[in-house]
Design brief:
single chain, alpha/beta, Rossmann fold
């Protein structure tokens, strides 16, 4: 999925990735190039898969809570020309890196970022056609927080809980718009309980590490104000027995294919 470089020359100038603190990584077969912290939070396969599920159309708007370095937003914008993605984050360093990556990938007309906390619901309600989030997977106090600040905030609950993340999604999305979440499979019951009566017609996609192994991650997508029954989809196996990735995973991670939840 990712090709890493330690340095790159841009228009005759050295990029920030020449620093020992960052790398430049290829996503979608090089269609997206991402400057990332070497040791802090790094974009995972989970977020690329999440971005591939968003059913946005040209002219529609997508909000990403916790945009980080903008990896998911850029993959989405590259896959769906004409969709507009706005991301928020609370870390100034990640916002600065996201803006650098947006410019680096020449997607300033379609991706933007601002500083905002997901627990602050004082802004306009029901504004976006789609909302996507990758909340911290670990509940506060249930594990040791990673030492890097940006990685710690990305992986473990801090001031915001899972309930806060889902409340943010429901508040921000338009009626009948989609809410998409990638999360730990063993906490799926918590996600569904917070969506109950507010977001329905749920599609639940397990991400299997390999065929025959328990899913570690799931993608859950539903529509606000819709009360259709939940569906457990067949799921997607990520790794093959011989090849690093299965053919289906390779199409998404390298070729930028969509991952429709149907």
């Amino acid at each position: 999925m990712v090709k890493t470089e330690s340095k790159l020359d841009l228009a005759g100038e050295e990029c920030v990735a020449d620093s020992t603190d960052t790398t430049i990584d290829d996503f979608l077969g090089g269609a997206v190039r991402l400057i990332q912290p070497r040791d802090g939070y790094r974009v995972s396969m989970d977020t690329v898969m999440l971005a591939a599920t968003i059913p946005a159309k040209p002219g529609e708007t997508v909000l990403e809570g916790g945009i980080g370095s903008a990896g998911a937003a850029l993959c989405l914008a590259r896959r769906l020309p004409g969709a507009h993605v706005f991301g928020i984050d609370i870390q100034p360093s990640m916002i600065a890196l996201a803006r650098q990556n947006i410019t680096y990938n020449d997607l300033c007309d379609f991706v933007s970022v601002g500083r905002h906390c997901i627990t602050d619901l004082s802004g306009p309600e029901a504004t976006y056609d789609h909302v996507m989030v990758n909340p911290p997977y670990l509940a506060k106090g249930k594990a040791i927080r990673p030492p890097e600040k940006n990685k710690g905030l990305a992986h473990m609950d801090s001031a915001a809980t899972l309930a806060d993340w889902i409340k943010f999604c429901i508040y921000s999305v338009k009626n009948r718009g989609t809410v998409s979440i990638v999360y730990r499979a063993d906490r799926i019951d918590e996600v569904i309980s917070h969506l109950y009566r507010r977001v329905g017609d749920l599609k639940i996609l397990p991400l299997w590490p390999r065929v025959g192994t328990p899913a570690k991650r799931v993608i859950i997508q539903g529509r606000k104000g819709i009360h259709g029954a939940a569906q457990l989809l067949p799921g997607l196996a990520l790794h093959g027995d011989v090849d690093r990735y299965t053919a289906d995973a390779h199409k998404i991670l390298w070729d930028g294919a969509a991952l429709p939840l149907e």
